[in-house]
Amino acid sequence: MRNLLFFCVVLTLFSFGKKEIGNTIKVNNQEELKSAVKNAVAGDEIILANGVWKDVQIKFYGKGTKDAPIVLRAETSGKVTIEGVSDLKIGGTYLEVRGLYFKNGYTPSNSVIDFRIDSKTIANNCKVLDCVIEDFTQLNRNKEDHWIEFWGRHNQLDHCSVTGKSNSGPTILVALKGNEHINNYHQITNNHFGPRPRKGGPHGETLQIGDSNTSMAPSYTNVANNLFERCDGEVEIISNKSNNNEYRNNIFYKCEGSLVLRHGNYCTIDGNIFIGDDNSEFMGGIRVINTGHLIINNYFYKIKGKEFRSALAVMNGVPKSPQNRYNQVTDAVVAYNTFVDCKTPWQFSVGANMDKSDVLPAQEIRSARPDRMIVANNIIFNHQGDEFPIKAYDKVDGVLFKNNFINSVNKSDVKSDGLKTQNLAMTKLSDWLYIPTVDQKELYAGFEFENIKKDVFSNSRAAANGTGAIVLPVDKSKGTINKKAYGAHWFSDEAVKETSKTIRVASENELTEALDKATSGTVIELKKGIYKIAASLTIDKKITIKSKDQKKRATVEYSGQANTPTFLMGAGGNLTLENIILKGEKNQHAFATKEKEMFSAYNLKVKNTEISDFDGVLNAYKDSFADTISIDNSVIKNCKRGLKLADENDDLGEYNAEFVYITNSKFENVQSNILDYYRGGYDESTIGGNLVFHNNTVANCGKEEKSGILIKTQGIVNVAISKNNFLNNPIKYIAVLWGEKNQQPKENTITNSGEFKTEQNLKQKMMY
Amino acid sequence: MRNLLFFCVVLTLFSFGKKEIGNTIKVNNQEELKSAVKNAVAGDEIILANGVWKDVQIKFYGKGTKDAPIVLRAETSGKVTIEGVSDLKIGGTYLEVRGLYFKNGYTPSNSVIDFRIDSKTIANNCKVLDCVIEDFTQLNRNKEDHWIEFWGRHNQLDHCSVTGKSNSGPTILVALKGNEHINNYHQITNNHFGPRPRKGGPHGETLQIGDSNTSMAPSYTNVANNLFERCDGEVEIISNKSNNNEYRNNIFYKCEGSLVLRHGNYCTIDGNIFIGDDNSEFMGGIRVINTGHLIINNYFYKIKGKEFRSALAVMNGVPKSPQNRYNQVTDAVVAYNTFVDCKTPWQFSVGANMDKSDVLPAQEIRSARPDRMIVANNIIFNHQGDEFPIKAYDKVDGVLFKNNFINSVNKSDVKSDGLKTQNLAMTKLSDWLYIPTVDQKELYAGFEFENIKKDVFSNSRAAANGTGAIVLPVDKSKGTINKKAYGAHWFSDEAVKETSKTIRVASENELTEALDKATSGTVIELKKGIYKIAASLTIDKKITIKSKDQKKRATVEYSGQANTPTFLMGAGGNLTLENIILKGEKNQHAFATKEKEMFSAYNLKVKNTEISDFDGVLNAYKDSFADTISIDNSVIKNCKRGLKLADENDDLGEYNAEFVYITNSKFENVQSNILDYYRGGYDESTIGGNLVFHNNTVANCGKEEKSGILIKTQGIVNVAISKNNFLNNPIKYIAVLWGEKNQQPKENTITNSGEFKTEQNLKQKMMY
């Protein structure tokens, strides 16, 4: 008989010292705080007085005990704001921080909250609870930091809200450099992460555990019960780069990225929910690289991503891969997951690029297929058939498919007996949650599958086991995301409703005055007439400037200095320009970004507007980033250049705009290119930008363009140029498209205007 | 209070079924055995009848339990011999094998004892105890096998003796390919491994755990209390290629290699003893690569190896190394070790080769220095000063030296405050064991050093801790290796004493008859006279053929077929030819190896002998291997070629002879080269062969040598050519030496004989 029952009777030989009630010390300023920290002993509680603490660098150290930690807390949670150039560093044992609110500032160091003070004073068994970091972002988006750095062991971030990081660097980094930091069993629990806006380049992860240099380390970090909401920073929401981490029961709500097992092995992804969107191909699921991962009990809804961003993306590896590239997938188990209304949810040998050996070095060629992988007991359910549930970019010969079920016909290249079409009934429990009507009980018993004891909702599988993530019965409440369960209890991310105020103006002075007074959401309506503007108008909030109707358009004449713009876009600026005639004097710009402090993205929307007589239409400086630029139904004429979004020229994968839409418009007599949109550097973590150039007329443009290209899109991943009319443009190429990314011109009319060229594989500068 | 004491009271709720005494089934042949295995249940014992079991492939399967294993054992341990083409495969749970003796044969499969039957029938919790595998080697040394393959989990090899593997492949392989085999906690305990003879190429490890493809796997194999004796197969006695393995309390007795942490991380090497030799630079200690290894409580005595083979060799890594090359050393801890009479025991950045970027690809350049490494609380003790205890091949900037002590002056490039010269007294306890007279108590308290609780002899450090591997008091018995504690209890490796019989002969017939009758060690004394030999004399044992004195030398005239040798060296042949005149008819060879079945090494010693009128002096075929070839005080003349040891031409690192000594001899009128000694393929696991060419005269040789080289030594690592006289040899080069290996001609006299050339870096074919 092998199974013994052990009853452990715990006796405590030495009686505990009677728990002392520590001192409570209220502090009002930095000096008092320093002194309080210096004198604190186990059990003490240091209370920061309510109010603004500006430009503080808090070092919280000491030796608490498990039963008597030293606590540093806000007098009232959320009422102590840490602002300005500030940070918090923690080093010692059993220290707890509660209730702080970081906002209106940024850190002067590498991190906002750091679980170490220096290499010798490291946190162990310390906690940060009920805190918020909001928009505490560096002034320059390319200045890198992390908002929370984990060092040491057994530290915890619990019930915190972390939102709005727009600069470079993972929001949270777990560092493993040194034996003191491995086997750390850190707890990242019950937090609310996001939104994290699109970054326009790499290094926009929300969580990174380890790095390629320490990817052999056992980390054992537990990431559980967190809500990741619209974490759109880059293609990796979470970048796992070490061993033995666990991701349990998290919700990924409409995040434009994936949970990526980038480096490291033997991780567990259990019981997570990935919710996508009908309209987005950017929201992904789990991307698998390396060895021994266990992916079970996960629920995927409307994940429509492809390749790197598919619901389950299993990559090809580089044979004998260098430490920082792609190891082969081996010994991975994908079992008991449910995929509802996803698009081609299973993609294998993603990243296979054997055809690119002439443009890439050998250590970039991913030809090692997944091996010794098991995919079993999963359910794919589609309300509308998905004929190709499996996509394979290479032979699938190392994957064992067993007892997977789909409710629609499978016409994939990979047709496995292990994926059977069957009539599966599902019941709708909420917008995103569908549960089986009956448990599907044909189960495959893989190696150690007996250890999979619970479903996605932590219900026991013992009584009534079934395929897929969900076993019956399911509590009705499970279909609702209870936001209050995540993040700081006192903090709400519900945006304050914008008051859509309208100010009517009839003169230059009124216009500038209105802009000064405007709050976010203000609409400034211009009466018909001429507005002579002599200095740039700064836009750093959400502003609409428009003539009331298209037939009575106001004219804005700009006479500012050379090389200045009419509208100067600042961080967070969001300008809609509608029904306006905008004129320059040839040597200024219609729009430009600030040259510095572009710490968050701007947006620019131009409608029914005529822009003429400028040097550049848009001049975006380095380190600036537009989320969306759209020009619709407008005319651009008699300018030297069009839109320049090409100043991120370090070839590090960064770029100046995520989405550029130019539609139903007319370009005439723009002397060089009409658009220069650039991303440089070979980097797969950026899958942008995006250009739609549709239904425009371009005439007599490009005559002074030295490159010979009218629409420059070097390195931009998604480019769609369709139904345009190109007429008498004396250039060589309308655009040079990237064949590998399936860029194809569609239904354009070309008259005396050069041609489209397609380069299959782009030569790019290696970044590492 | 953090430390609780747990008292676990184990209660058994369900009473055990009364332990049934299983059946005992004696079997006399394979059919009975098959049937017995088929019917065996937990608790059964199957007994193999004493005697020879020939050509058997035993499949031992079943389901035993912890308390009632199924046992397969010899009627009398050691009296059941498994011979011929045989193997044993084990698959199931709680199976035990005891007392078997594998000899006089080889396996038809990949392994002699395999802890799995096939990929589905794997052993778990199985044991092989008290068994012996002796000389069970493949007939061709290049045919690869393993003698013991571990698969599954929790299997054990205990008290076994494994000796004499001379073919390719690690003696023991722990396989990790698949989740069923990781976290295996195999026990390799109390065994006696070796001798394993020199192999002359790679793949001669005694133990390999994992491989580069599975090196990310956690293995947790425990290798404890074994005796490794003269395991000389190759430069790695043990090749660790996975994570979390432990090497505890083993003795490495005069093994020509090292315990190498080749791949994998976080291994523990604790309490091992490495015993070297005054006369060998081949015996090594521990070679460190990768991350997080803990090297404590080890005792090194007379380890005189350099570079790869130094007592502590810490390598440089390749930045972002490919999976099968060299990762940087990080987070390694070397503490509480003792080095007695070693030569430059600490070598750092071993393998640094930044100067070789023109002959090696980038992924071979080891420029990443050890980082975050701690070397503390160690003792270096020398009876005669060792002025350079530390050798560094690169900057040492990532190693923290703390509280290390040496009893002699340190003139190393690396002079660290952390290595202090101090008067350390040591007491001799045995030939190889020196213990401190008093504990040296200045200790550095590194991270988690408090967990180092015992010394090399498992004595507690609690009472009187000290630096070095040994704390006082030490039991006197510790200075003796009790061989009976290791390996099968019934087996002794003490060689049967050779009876050095002398047979005197006076005619050809008597000579061939004597050879037939000879046992190993026989001396055949030839009376003066002419012995006309028409067919090759086969030498497959230890034989001396000699004239009694040098002045009355017998003449052996060989008239065999073209291309046959006078003496045909077979596997294990060991010929000493002394005081003989040996003549051919121009188209035969003086010596040659067999073309097949050279499963173990031969030796050839020629003294005071004249060899003339042959095609080749020695013709060594592919797959043959000589341990030592020596020619001393002899004359070689009028031959077409000299010694050919160049048939291992696959460029896989193999070569045909380990040691070649040619001394005090004369070569005259050898028409092409006098020696062709070759090793091909870039491979660092072979650090041979070895040529000493000293005090010879070479005259009128090489005139028909097409390569223009008189002594060809391509790829041979150790080449010493000194005090020779080269006279009138019409060649271009006497030899082309390898500068990187410090090959330099010394004190040779060259007259009309070409010159020495030195190539610093050899271009070699990559093997992987």
Would you kindly provide a written description of the structure presented here, covering whatever features stand out?
Two copies of one chain form a homodimer. Chain A has 768 residues and is mainly beta. Among the domains of chain A are: 265-282 and 291-494, no CATH class; 495-601, no CATH class; 640-768, no CATH class. Chain A has two helices and 71 strands. In chain A, the strands form eight sheets. The first copy, chain A, has a 14-stranded parallel sheet, covered by helices on one side. Chain A has a 14-stranded parallel sheet with strand order 4-7-10-14-17-20-23-26-29-32-35-38-41-42, with no helix packed on it. Mean pLDDT of chain A is 93; it is low at 1-19. At the A-B interface, strand 1 of A face strand 1 of B. Chains A, B: This is DUF4957 domain-containing protein. Chains A, B: Pfam families: Chondroitinas_B.
Contiguous runs where pLDDT drops below 50 for at least 5 residues of chain A: 1-19
Biggest interface pair, counts: A-B, 51 and 51 residues
- Calculate Rg of chain A over CA atoms: 28 Å
Strand arrangement across the biggest beta sheet of chain A: 2-3-6-9-13-16-19-22-25-28-31-34-37-40
**Fraction of residues of chain A in helices?**
under 10%
Structural class of chain A: mainly beta
Tell me the total number of β-strands of chain A.
Answer: 71
**What's the multimeric state?**
homodimer
Strand content of chain A: 35-45%
Shape type of chain A: globular
Q: N-to-C terminal Cα separation of chain A, in Å?
A: 56 Å
Outline the biggest β-sheet of chain A.
14 strands, parallel
Number of helices of chain A: 2
Please tell me the overall pLDDT of chain A: 93
Pfam families (chains A, B): Chondroitinas_B
Organism (chains A, B): Flavobacterium cellulosilyticum
Protein name (chains A, B): DUF4957 domain-containing protein
